[in-house]
């Protein structure tokens, strides 16, 4: 599951850009670029990240999956005999609270791996900054990921697939899988490489600008446009009532459409959104209620 109404909102995580920039600045010493993580290890992290949501829990959400994903880096960087204490602290850090869009989790994993590498190769590295970076990144990445991937990419893929599925074509299901998963895997793969290669540099750049907020806003606008197009195209709501008599009778739906094309569909969608988002009604009950309502309407001659 990529996104749900139960998911913790992005703004519930700390994102103090000023303190983050200060913390990173304190770590800018004459560190040498000693790379210990090879491509094989990074590939392991990539594949392990696909299991991020497999052990989701209410206390710390994705922390078990995140710990599993970063484990290949910990195994390489910290010797189980010589670096026992550092290894323990790294494992403990990996089990902190985690809530991020799975497809962008690799960016966080890449930055985390780069900083664990610095911690393993430099005795004067303050390992508390690793936890601070994770905490500061979760909020922006969750906001961007949910808007860009779950709120835009998935909606576009679903919109394309529904058109084929309505005609009984199996291509609809295949297109949904391809349109969503191909870009999602590309984003997941290159986010890991980007996060690892550039490490804290990307965090310092983001802390000095509002680029993350701009990306989130732009993705939200595109997602809302896609949802609006889907509502107008695929939601059907016909009211079998007419105004007037004889040949002058006109369906009441036409009057609604004269006010605004697709107004009945918009009202129905807005009511469903109000139930889910404002009243907190569970999705299952909304679906069951819709099914029962459709059956009753068909019995009395109303086609929804």
UniProtKB/TrEMBL annotation:
<feature type="transmembrane region" description="Helical">
    <location>
        <begin position="255"/>
        <end position="276"/>
    </location>
</feature>
<feature type="transmembrane region" description="Helical">
    <location>
        <begin position="170"/>
        <end position="190"/>
    </location>
</feature>
<keyword id="KW-1133">Transmembrane helix</keyword>
<dbReference type="InterPro" id="IPR050303">
    <property type="entry name" value="GatZ_KbaZ_carbometab"/>
</dbReference>
<dbReference type="InterPro" id="IPR004704">
    <property type="entry name" value="PTS_IID_man"/>
</dbReference>
<feature type="region of interest" description="Disordered">
    <location>
        <begin position="1"/>
        <end position="20"/>
    </location>
</feature>
<keyword id="KW-0472">Membrane</keyword>
<protein>
    <submittedName>
        <fullName>PTS system mannose/fructose/sorbose family IID component</fullName>
    </submittedName>
</protein>
<feature type="transmembrane region" description="Helical">
    <location>
        <begin position="211"/>
        <end position="235"/>
    </location>
</feature>
<feature type="transmembrane region" description="Helical">
    <location>
        <begin position="283"/>
        <end position="303"/>
    </location>
</feature>
<dbReference type="Pfam" id="PF03613">
    <property type="entry name" value="EIID-AGA"/>
</dbReference>
<keyword id="KW-0812">Transmembrane</keyword>
<dbReference type="GO" id="GO:0005886">
    <property type="term" value="C:plasma membrane"/>
</dbReference>
<dbReference type="GO" id="GO:0009401">
    <property type="term" value="P:phosphoenolpyruvate-dependent sugar phosphotransferase system"/>
</dbReference>
